[in-house]
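Suppose you are handed a protein chain with no further information: no name, no annotation, nothing but its sequence. What can you learn? This example shows the usual starting point.
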Amino acid sequence: ANDIKLVTTFDLKAGVKIKDLKISYPDGAYIADAKTVTVKVSLLPLIFKTVRVSDVAIERPHCEIKYLKDGQADIVKYFTEQSAHKDSKTSSPQELPFKFSEKLPKVDLKDYNFVIKDDVSEHKLAIKGNSFVFDDAVLNKHFKIETDGKVLINDKQNVNFDVAVTSFWPAVEQKTKVK
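A reasonable first move is to predict its three-dimensional structure. Written in structure tokens, the prediction is:
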């Protein structure tokens, strides 16, 4: 990241804004990047020992996932290996000193590009769009998604989409324990 700033707002939120974020594996292999990432937390719920991430805004997110020849996604393989290594050193799970809000953050992606590459077939699937907004979401209740974009297979446009959905979701158990 080139530039990291603390941000505050008049509606009692604080967070961080990161410019030119790049994420890679320890060996330097690419995972993702973004022009700007902003994450904000509502301050008032902290009084009640509740963490509420209120906003996540990402400008120009780009992410690549590879399906390796063994059939596993590269990122899944990496985290599985790291978890197995960590579990051998970790003590028993502990209760966190706070809880997370059931109200989920507004997630706003601008100019997004997500790519899945298959090392076996050498095919590529890309989902690109101008805007993706996940909002009005409360665990075990409802959510709203608005997005537009296109699906490309091997760099050839296959499907255009413009979607606005308001729906509910089934019950999701909230866990606050960390290993």
